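From the pipeline queue, job 12 of 40. The input is one protein chain; the requested action is below.

Action: predict structure.
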Amino acid sequence: IVKDHHLKVSLRQGTGVLSGIFFKGAPSFEIVQKGSVDVVYTLEANTFNEKTTLQMKIMDMKPSVERLSEL
């Protein structure tokens, strides 16, 4: 959790890992801790200390459909 409001995550699918930021997404922290999630996002360039990487700008997040079917 960043500045009490935002959620910074690294999400994995298969062997790929991508970092993301979910502005005002701190309430979703528990969803991420419990397992797989589905996310809606756009990709953006993030430049920090003169290094540019791709990151997800997350717009929404919910428990994964696969996870819900297991309940």
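Job complete. Helices lie at 29-33, 65-70.
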